[in-house]
User: Fold this.
Amino acid sequence: EAKARLKFLLVHDQVDLTPSQIESMKTEIMEVIARYVEVDKSGADFKLQKEAGGVALVSNIPVSRVTARAV
Assistant:
């Protein structure tokens, strides 16, 4: 647990986003996705993870069904 938390902190330091900015980003991403599909917000998971050459935003968002296309 401590090792995972340290890794999390190191990645977030590298991205240089505040926790508030990260939460705002997650909210905005979920709003855009919800225009196209019905999602289970409680099951959504977002992670910043170190990749070769940088940091990647990795998400797992359960989709219940496809809805009408956004206009």
In short: The chain is about 40% helix and 30% strand. Strands lie at 37-39, 45-51, 54-60, 63-66. The chain has a mean pLDDT of 81.
